[in-house]
Amino acid sequence: MKFKINKFKNNSNLIKYPFLFLIGILATFSLPPFSIFPCVFLISISIFYLLNSDDLKEAFLIGFFLAFGWFLVSLYWISNAILTGGKEFFWMIPFVFFGLPALLSIFWGLAFFFTNLIGQNITERLFLLSILFPLFEWLRGNILSGFPWNMLGFSLSSPLEFAQTISFLGPYGQNILIVFLITIPVSFYYNKKFFLSIATVVSVAALLTSTYLYNNNKIRFTKQNIRIVQPNFSHFEKWDKSKYFINQEKLIELSNDRSNENFLIIWPETAIVNFIDKINEDISYIVDNIFYKNSGILIAGIPRKEMINSKNYYYNSMIAIDQNGEILGNYDKKRLVPFGEYNPFRAFLSFFSVIATDKEFSKGGRSNQFFAFNNLNLFPMICYEAIFPFKANKDKSYDLIINITNDAWFGETLGPEQHFWLAKQRAVETGIPMVRVSNSGISSLIAPNGEEIESLNFGSSGFLELKIPEKFKQTLYLKFGEKIYYLITLVLIFTFIFFKRRGFN
């Protein structure tokens, strides 16, 4: 059924779609590291276009071109990893620079498409958008290997007063809040008081709750010491076999502790570029020159090899070593970077070699250990895993999240900044402090509310020596996880059905 709306000027497609593309670009300034939050309201303009359209193809293209601007500009830096990988991968640059944003834009296009397909009037479409837009962001973050990078809700990462919404809504619930916020100007313009009242009350309540949590959760510190080591090796220095011992000495120099205190020392992802079974003598030398017989634990990134049924399997791992050189445990990365660490389509693209390593990595098993240090339970994350919402063994309580990474691949682009801010979300959503240790930066100790206790900038070399913060009281998200998002979505669906039967208008 068609309906009449007070229409804006009906611009030709030649102007409309490039304009929406530009809106998508400008809206990304709401994301970290720029964090100009009001820019997210530019997306409201696309909603006006959507409500003025009765053509389903046009509805899809409105969402697609908006998203294409959003993703093209905010993810341009991924191409830099391919440049770092070597000339043999240069052919991939157009596919990554244009193809990946286009693929991700399909999700927004489908959200707009189904909004207009089902919605028969303005209020219905506003309601449906608050359900479908976040739903397709959830799909983007979960189907196949998932890629929840730069979701709508990521714009709530700053200021920190707003960032606490993730602790009770979760990252996917934040998407609902953002859609409510950006539809407020639209519902006000069309005088849709029913939807306007719901969106306004929910948004104000969520932001006030978030501000209250930020102001009332005070940061306190344990007595445990931690040292964060950032060596800042270039990609080629790091994997140059002739510089193996030179690099090792630099790591030791940044790590050695003569304070007679019990230290937890963290090295970044693949800080040790040799397999465990080949570094037994190195381990003794490393711990002797770091701890000087004092007690402590070194946690470091290292590749791991394991033979299973006469076949070698390779893992991107994290190991814990005590002052005696004993390996206390290891963790194997579970979420691998598609085409960077493994080939998800090996059955069809067997000729394709991965970018980040000579050997394709395997996914870690579920039985991998977590680490403990002086009665603190440590939850490990390696690199890319930190962009995904927190999932942990519900039977265990964690005191510190350890995220080791190597962002040197991305150079001086937005990539390391975005990766850092995404990792910070894991601390805020759980109320658990995080230590993030990157080869080239940004390395930081992050409080449970997202505050940076202290940081090492990208491109610098050095170390930080700090006390570990205490965790906050268990957050709603840590307790219930995505059940919060599912519940809110079900409430919105049933509310939509209930009022649709009675006529929204």
What does this structure look like?
- The chain has 15 helices and 12 strands.
- It is an alpha/beta fold and 505 residues long.
- The protein has 2 domains: 13-216 and 481-502, no CATH class; 221-472, Nitrilase/N-carbamoyl-D-aminoacid amidohydrolase.
- The strands form 2 sheets. A 6-stranded mixed beta sheet has the order 5-4-3-2-1-12.
- It is globular.
- The two termini are 14 Å apart.
CATH homologous superfamily name of the largest domain? Answer: Carbon-nitrogen hydrolase
Major sheet attributes: 6 strands, mixed
Strand content: 15-25%
What is the tally of helical segments? Answer: 15
Architecture of the largest domain, according to CATH?
4-Layer Sandwich
Label the structural class: alpha/beta
Output the helix-strand order: HHHHHHHHHEHHEHEEEEEEHEEEEHH
**Mean pLDDT across all residues, rounded?**
88
Alpha-carbon Rg, integer? 24 Å
Task: Name the helicity range.
Answer: 40-55%
* CATH C-level category of the largest domain: Alpha Beta
CATH topology of the largest domain: Nitrilase/N-carbamoyl-D-aminoacid amidohydrolase
Tell me the span between the first and last alpha carbons.
14 Å
Question: Which overall shape is indicated by the principal axes computed on the Cα atoms?
Answer: globular
Strand order of the largest sheet: 5-4-3-2-1-12
